[in-house]
Design brief:
homodimer, mainly alpha, about 60% helix, about 0% strand, globular, DNA-binding
DNA sequence: TCTTATACCGGTATTTGTATCACGGTTGCT
DNA sequence: AGCAACCGTGATACAAATACCGGTATAAGA
């Protein structure tokens, strides 16, 4: 086993991440947003549904631009537990 | 052709992107930064040298955090020509 | 000189991302 | 009803990301 097969937490993170994108998409259709970002609609769907839990940086950059989102906020929203992880505290 | 085999421009973009990371790393060693970001040193090296031109979003997020970089600035620094491409103009 | 640490490079293995194809569902129009 | 158009979905195919291994080169220090 050479490549870590994505931990359950990573997959869960992918789902949360996709949910964020879907929420940001709002009323716009997948096709519309995907075209604006320059990716295929199927790719966008996989990312939104969490079936592509670790999409490429530039794909997300294009989608974030199309959806008018901040990359830093997206990353922060899916931040790893690091050490403290007080969560909602 | 099912998956676009990465255009020459995308590879070039990967090199520029890697150069940014290397510059931000400064004096710190690859191993040190890679460990801080939770990725292998080989992966960091490949990204820095442009041999991994389209890294995953969360890999870059971890590296950006370890290097204290802004994702938005990183994306902006490697922005596509879109249409206008007035650049510094 | 020998050892250590760092970085680079090639190959290999496995998993995953992305794109194309083909299907079912819904809506609107003739 | 028949048709086209759009949307979302599943299956499939290929390219690439990530990680591990060994080897090489350079520089610093004992």
């Amino acid at each position: 086993m050479v490549r870590t097969p994505l931990t359950p937490w990573e997959r869960e993170r992918g789902e949360r991440f996709g949910a964020l994108l879907r929420e940001a998409r709002g009323e716009r259709s997948m096709v519309e947003v995907a075209a604006a970002a320059g990716v295929s609609a199927e790719t966008l769907r996989k990312i939104e549904t969490g079936r592509a839990p670790t999409p490429s940086f530039f794909t997300i950059a294009a989608l974030a631009f199309a959806l008018d989102l901040s990359m830093d906020e997206l990353a922060a929203a899916c931040a790893p537990p690091e050490d403290g992880e007080a969560l909602s505290a």
